[in-house]
Specification:
The structure holds 2 protein chains of 2 kinds. Chain A is an all-alpha fold. Chain A has helices at 3-32, 40-58, 61-85, 90-113, 136-139, 145-153, 158-176, 178-188, 190-195, 200-226, 238-248, 253-273, 286-290, 292-301; strands at 130-131, 156-157, 277-278, 282-283. Chain A has 14 helices and 4 strands. Chain A is globular. The termini of chain A are far apart. Chain B contains 15 helices and no strands. In chain B, helix 5 (109-138) packs antiparallel against helix 11 (260-270). The chains are: A mainly alpha, B mainly alpha. Chains A and B meet through helix 3, helix 4, helix 11, helix 13 and helix 14 of A and helix 6, helix 12 and helix 14 of B.
């Protein structure tokens, strides 16, 4: 394994972490506001489908992106209705939304496109292609810095760069603005927010909108930036892993970025290790490598590496006393 | 929020029924939106599910799976736990069935059947116990761990089936077959009416499980402890119930219940261990449990409804190609959403209707 290999694995790590970063930060907003969102997985799937379908029909990745966000907004609206207005069980609502996304995308996909759930293959103009940063080609020959710049930093899609911008933005919004303060407060003690004359319902809906926008971009990334079209069950558990990453990151944006990068790295490593023979052990079965991120997540959740405390009012509907 | 009083029958029967109807109405709208006729779809489904022997046999076969899965999720639900891992637990239980069946291959089914039940239950219980343990002792969220365990189960099973259990010379990924004499007895062998349908005596086990469930939850000390834990964990703790121990036992029992799906499929229908034999039954169990409100009567009705949907749904695919089986997952999701998450949405409107219909009664003091 030489230097170029390492650069390739790292570049792949970046690409694989992007949907996790979007989904994880999306979950951060709603969970900080006191709404548990198991439905991240379903929203990723729904927005990936909406983005690919619209991009295929209109030919515009931007409209696709908007559709992706729209799909996630629709799901968020249902989740909000169930968990804020009707004070239902948020976990159940999230699980239902995940099934709904799986069913609807497969059903509408086969009905509309007649390709067994796949959307038509997108051409390069219909998706967010890689962007070459200035001088990437010229820098390539420079030792060390060259490959890092042109291989690792340059050549990603617009949405990838956006993901890395959203992290500092989230940190700023959450800890440096009045909205962020209120958002955190409504997740810890909604009554205090209510007493201060601020609407708990409105704040929570605002959080859900931000969640939908972020996870919508993440879903669109899957189908119209990283992939070239939607395929059934495209989210493949990323929503759940993002949720686990959020818990492990203790609901903080910068640690969330690190954890997502770590999961991305594991995923990239597992792609790389497939079919390679190791001394003594021989070839490691594909399944053993594929299962690694899930097992790691279980270990993380079991709190063997630090204990995480959720926002206090997380998962509880707020009822004004009469 | 004003909790308007509702007659008990409205609370137990009317509200869930309205929610299910709502779910199906929206499902119908979705079918309509892609240019298909939902009423004709219902007609085709009803005939496909109940209209002739083979169809009915298939419906009962699916119902068997859904009763076990529904009871498994209901049991956890009674204890306030949300077991999404039924799918993976049933999948892993297939190992127990195939190990015992291949070890004693050729044994008469009357001896094999109980062996399969025990083996499957052990595997299912063990697989469900781990998330239970992690929830009870380490505080990890059971919803997320059970979901992750579904993914882990898929990896383990596809490795074991493709690399370990597959006999040399087979092209498809499956285990060696169980002898015909050892397979669970199919009903068609003594009721010719069912023709080629796979329904087998596991169905009677499912019916027995419904009664057993009622007895366990509402007639025993253990059942009381389960319900106490679900109703108020703090109070349960004060009453001297060990919540940690209960969580682990309930999860293991839940896994043992859904393990019977493996007996039905591996031991009865397929006669071998194949990839993904559970086919989503574990997930249907969630919808069945919510729709049935965790009660055996409700679970039985909901399981029959979904059995009809599954069997009728595969008929649909032939006669109305525009409607695929995925539509059923959508219906399943809508049922969970309306009966589970938005169960109280219609409570106030219905209460208002009741208040209008009945003359105001003087309040007793």
């Amino acid at each position: 394994m030489d230097f170029t290999d390492i650069i390739n694995i790292l570049a792949q790590t970046v690409r694989l972490s992007v949907p996790l970063i979007f989904a994880c930060l999306a979950g951060l907003y709603s969970e900080r506001a006191g709404i548990v969102d198991i439905g991240l997985e379903g929203k990723l799937l729904a927005s990936a489908f909406a983005a690919a379908a619209v991009a295929a029909v209109t030919g515009s990745p931007w409209l696709g992106l908007l559709a992706g966000i729209g799909g996630a907004l629709l799901f968020s609206a249902v989740h909000g209705l169930a968990s804020i207005n009707f004070k239902g069980n948020q976990t159940i609502s999230g699980v239902a939304l995940n099934f709904l996304a799986a069913g609807l995308t497969a059903y509408l996909g086969t009905s509309w496109f007649k390709r067994g759930g796949f959307t038509p293959q997108l051409s390069s103009g219909q998706r967010f292609g890689p962007i070459q940063l200035p001088y990437a080609a010229e820098m390539r020959e420079v030792p060390i810095i060259g490959p890092i710049y042109s291989g690792l930093i340059s050549g990603h899609s617009l949405l990838t760069y956006l993901a890395f911008l959203v992290v500092p933005l989230t940190a700023w919004v959450l800890f440096r603005t009045r909205f962020g303060l209120r958002l955190r407060a409504v997740g810890e003690n909604p009554k205090a927010i209510d007493t201060a004359g601020i609407s708990v319902t409105l704040l929570r809906y605002q959080a859900l909108v931000i969640t939908a926008v972020l996870v919508g971009i993440g879903g669109a990334y899957l189908s119209i930036a990283a992939g070239a079209g939607f395929n059934p069950n495209m989210a493949a558990g990323r929503g759940y892993i993002a949720l686990a990453a959020l818990i492990f990151a203790k609901w903080k944006p910068w640690p969330a970025l690190l954890v997502c990068l770590m999961f991305g790295f594991l995923d990239s490593l597992q792609l790389r290790l497939q079919g390679i023979k190791f001394p003594f052990v021989g070839e490691i079965p594909v399944q053993a490598i594929q299962v690694l991120p899930y097992i790691l997540t279980v270990i993380l959740l079991a709190g063997f590496i630090g204990r995480a405390v959720a926002p206090k009012a997380s998962g509880l509907p707020y009822t004004k006393e009469r | 929020m004003i909790k308007a009083p509702l007659p008990r029958w409205a609370d137990v029967v009317l509200l869930p029924l309205l929610n299910v109807v709502l779910a199906f109405l929206i499902g119908g709208l979705i079918v309509l939106s892609v240019g298909q006729n939902p009423l004709r779809a219902v007609q085709v489904m009803l005939y496909g599910a109940f209209g002739y022997g083979t169809g009915l046999g298939y419906t009962l076969y699916y119902t068997t799976d859904f009763i076990f899965a529904g009871l498994a999720v209901s049991l956890a639900m009674q204890a306030g736990l949300f077991n999404i891992g039924a799918e993976g637990q049933a999948y892993i239980s297939g190992l127990g069935v195939i190990f015992i069946a291949l070890a004693f291959n050729g044994l008469h089914w009357a001896f094999m059947f109980p062996l399969m039940i025990v083996a499957a239950a052990l595997f299912g219980a063990a697989w469900a116990f781990i998330p239970g343990y992690l929830q009870a002792k380490r505080g990890s969220h059971i919803v997320i761990t059970t979901i992750l365990f579904n993914f882990i189960a898929i990896s383990i099973m596809s490795y074991l089936i493709a690399r370990v259990l597959k006999p040399a010379g087979l092209t498809s990924d499956e285990s060696a077959p169980i002898d015909a004499a050892s397979r669970v007895l199919q009903l068609k062998t003594f009721i010719p009416f069912f023709k080629t349908a796979p329904v087998n005596i596991t169905f009677f086990l499912a019916v027995a499980a419904l009664f057993g469930f009622y007895w366990l939850i509402w007639r025993t000390k253990f059942g009381f402890a389960v319900r106490a834990l679900g109703f108020n964990p703090t109070a349960a703790n004060y009453a001297g119930i060990s919540n940690q121990k209960m969580i682990m036992i309930v999860m293991a029992l839940s896994g043992a219940l859904v393990a019977m799906v493996a007996v039905n499929n591996v031991g009865g229908v397929q006669g071998r261990l194949i990839m993904n034999f559970v086919g989503g039954a574990g997930y249907v169990g969630i919808a069945v449990a919510f729709m049935g409100k965790g009660h055996p009567v409700g679970v039985a009705l909901a399981a029959l409804l979904f059995g009809m949907l599954y069997q009728g749904g595969s008929e649909l695919a032939f006669s109305m190609p525009g409607i695929t089986r995925e539509m059923i997952i959508t219906i399943q999701a809508l049922v969970i959403l309306f009966t589970g998450a938005m169960g109280d949405m219609l409570r106030n409107p219905v209460a208002r209707l009741f208040a209008l219909a009945s003359p105001p009664v003087a309040e007793k003091r």
